[in-house]
Amino acid sequence: MVSSDQRRRQLAREKFERQQQRRAEKQRRARRRAAVIGAAVAVVVAAAATAFATGVFDGKSVKDKEDGTNVADAPPPTPTKKPDPCKKPAPGQTAKLSFDKEPKLDVDKSATYRMKLATTCGDIALDLDAKNAPRTVNSFNFLANKGYFDHTKCHRLTTQGIYVLQCGDPTAAGTGTPGYKLPDENLKDPKVKGGTYPAGTVAMANSGPNTGGSQFFLVYKDSPLPPNYTPFGTIKAGQDVLEKIAGAGESAGTGDGAPNATVVIDKATVTK
């Protein structure tokens, strides 16, 4: 017989995977819209094209609820707003860089790499696993050196069933990528193959197999997840920072939304 705790974990896993699938579909729809807009621009005057683009990208994108109904048909959930425990972001803007291909693999697989996230809520130090996830670590070393992560918001916090803070997206909308995709790595790591990503794990977000980019998540409490997300490091310092962020809650009031805390990576550095 399945216990209530096991059932809760199963439901949390299924919810997380559905959310990943919806994000992938949203990205596909966005690409299709962009293609349509590109064709329209070629045959209409600039003023009309501008008006059309404004109508499409007005920030009122429609998302489907899990039961198949439209969010617009129901009132929004009452958000849970708690005080912001973090400081104001440092001056500056995201670089919004894009690259045609994955950087050349020149990471030292025998070396230890550490990534420091200087955030508005405090510093978080990560040890990166170059030996078992070389292409992922190589990409993060490359992107950090380019300033890709600087001034970016950590846009997603989950507080029910799965406990992660998601970062690494310059758009802060869950759709940003560096322009290339990374293969999955280290999925047979004994720490995650049992169906749980333990607290302290640093792993890649994705929208399906071999679709990693720049988005990653920090696990602040053991989370039931299938081993589908590249684990490429561990949190060595800053657990208290994550707990402070989690304690402030998320804005949607559903256990999955933007953090109430203003979590901005002022500066990301990778050192060997």
TrEMBL record:
The keyword Isomerase applies. One of its GO terms (molecular function) is peptidyl-prolyl cis-trans isomerase activity. Residues 1-31, 63-103 are annotated as: Disordered. InterPro entries: Cyclophilin-like_dom_sf (IPR029000), Cyclophilin-type_PPIase_dom (IPR002130), Cyclophilin_A-like (IPR044666). The keyword Oxidoreductase does not apply. It catalyses: [protein]-peptidylproline (omega=180) = [protein]-peptidylproline (omega=0). Residues 1-24 have a biased composition (Basic and acidic residues). It comes from the Bacteria. It is an enzyme of class 5 (isomerase). Residues 122-270 form the PPIase cyclophilin-type domain. Pfam families: Pro_isomerase. Keywords: Isomerase, Rotamase. Its EC number is 5.2.1.8. Belongs to the cyclophilin-type PPIase family. PPIases accelerate the folding of proteins. It catalyzes the cis-trans isomerization of proline imidic peptide bonds in oligopeptides. This is Peptidyl-prolyl cis-trans isomerase.
